[in-house]
Amino acid sequence: RSVYDGEEHGRFMEKLEARIRNHDREIEKMCNFHYQGFVDSITELLKVRGEAQKLKNQVTDTNRKLQNEGKELMIAMEELKQCRLQQRNISATVDKLTLCLPVLEMYSKLREQMKSKRHYPALKTLEHLEHTYLPQVSHYRFCKVMLDNIPKLREEIKEVSMSDLKDFLESIRKHSDKIGETAMKQAQQQRNLDNIVSQHPRISGGKRSKKEACASSDLEVKNTSPMSEQDSGILDVEDEDEDEEVPGAQDLVDFSPVYRCLHIYSVLGARETFENYYRKQRRKQARLVLQPPSNMHETLDGYRKYFNQIVGFFVVEDHILHTTQGLVNRAYLDELWEMALSKTIAALRTHSSYCSDPGLVLDLKNLIVLFADTLQGYGFPVNQLFDMLLEVRDQYSETLLKKWSGVFRNILDSDNYSPIPVTNEEVYQKVVGQFPFQDAELEKQPFPKKFPFSEFVPKVYSQIKEFIYACLKFSEDLHLSSTEVDDMIRKSTNLLLTRTLSNALQNVIKRRNVGLTELVQIIINTTHLEKSCKFLEEFITNITNVLPETVHTTKLYGTTTFKDARHAAEEEIYTNLNQKIDQFVQLADYDWMAVEPGSRASDYLVDLIGFLRSTFAVFTHLPGDADAHSTMSGKVAQTACMSACKHLATSLMQLLLEAEVRQLTLGALQQFNLDVEECERKMQNLPFP
């Protein structure tokens, strides 16, 4: 800085040049000292360059050879690389297929199950497919298609299983008649078995009881897996011989469609829908079953088919109750039974009222009892049916009374109203066997001889006993006490005597053409029938084992029937006699202006007295032993005689006092007096006091 600031620039440059020159001289000195070594180095370098060029050529040559030789290796390496890539891809593909194949297999299995209608297994397969297999491969497109199809498949399974259920319900409806028939046969067998056991308590073997049979059949059905692939419907059963055991009602039915459908709907979470549908359909079927055919009352088969269908319906429902958990419950079943009971009883009341044949009513009663016993065996209350049978009993009594009315009418119409003649001991014993009659005097008499009564007495007595047997038949199996049975029989018998037989007797007595001889025989007959009432009492006591002394026992008051009939016959005798007297008196032809009387009684009066005497002679044939003869015949004869005489006296007085008779002569009065004296004289000589 001082150089530039001062004026010494030139001087400085000089000094600097001098300095450079000094350095150059030093450099030159040094170079001169090492020059040989430099030359040697250059020479060496030139040698190295030649060797380096050689090496370069060798390396280039070697590289070329290496490149030529390595081409094949590179190709092989490229191929190896591609193979490795393919191998890796194949391995990945196998892994993915390993995941996908079970899905496809399961889907194929599902389709196969659907095709073969194995819906419950198909549903299980669907569950596995949806929850186990598809989540592992859910990113594949075909899986998404499957997932979209699953709801449709579920719906298809629901529809198909419901279709099977509908077929089952339709089949059950058609075959409930057969199921009920089988169940009632079982109940009948059980009842017969119970009767045998009650008669022979020691017998403990034999056929199984109904409960055991039901239990075993229940077990069999419970062991039937819902996976069962059999078709729905009723199994065919050939008609068994009487000696063969009747199959259990449940053995006739394959319930697997119900179980399958129930399981399917339960798995699908729609159990409540299924239960409601099943109950609704069965209610509809119940209403159809409970609708009786219009001509049911015409034959017993009509009633039997009606009962079979009802029993079949409730046997199925009872079985469903015990083999499914809640598909039907006791409350639902009780409600159905209440409805069935009321409709059945109403139908029976209506149709049985049309029935006029006591045989059909009795068969109907036996059928109703079997119907009640069958359903009682399945736990249904049947008291109302037995109460209704008591109403049918009254109707049965009415039909019996109508039938016996015709029987009595035929007996009375066909009777000859003359004592029964017997020619030998065999005929005598036959009549005594039919009618309780004992008469020591008659027994001592030689053959031929006559019973005092006509044929209608033993016939009527036998028919009364037949009526009692018919009443007894109806009371069997009604679970009534012997006192109730006795009371029923006595009341019905009283109605038979006081109404039916009484009307028949009254009709015979009141007939226009009935003769005095017939009326007298009716009096004799009714006297003997009246005496037989005590034997009827004994007969009823023997068959019911209820002593007449028992409290509240109804007494037979049939004696009044025969007394009333006898009184009616007596009255008819008196009336007939009076009418005959009137007819004779109408023939009287008095000449009230006659001067002289006739020499004898008037002709009409002679004929009249002859008629009366012959008529009163009939009364000597009135019944029985001496005492009965004197009292019975005497009373009727005396009363008839008094009635006839009184009526004749009144009629004669009427002749005198007629308005047309204005004046009388003494001769006419003397003739009239002659007639009255004739009456007095002849009527005193009668064959009774």
Descriptive notes:
Residues 200-232 are annotated as: Disordered. One of its GO terms (biological process) is intracellular protein transport. Residues 13-83 form a coiled coil. Residues 15-184 form the Exocyst complex component EXOC6/Sec15 N-terminal domain. This protein is an all-alpha fold and 689 residues long. It has 4 domains: 8-136; 147-195 and 249-380, no CATH class; 396-418 and 454-574, Tetracycline Repressor, domain 2 (Orthogonal Bundle), CATH 1.10.357.30; 587-684, Methane Monooxygenase Hydroxylase, Chain G, domain 1. The protein has 21 helices and 4 strands. Strands 1-2 form a two-stranded antiparallel ribbon. Strands 3-4 form a two-stranded antiparallel ribbon. The longest helix has 107 residues, at 9-115. The radius of gyration is 64 Å and the shape is rod-shaped. Mean pLDDT is 81; it is low at 202-243 and 623-630.
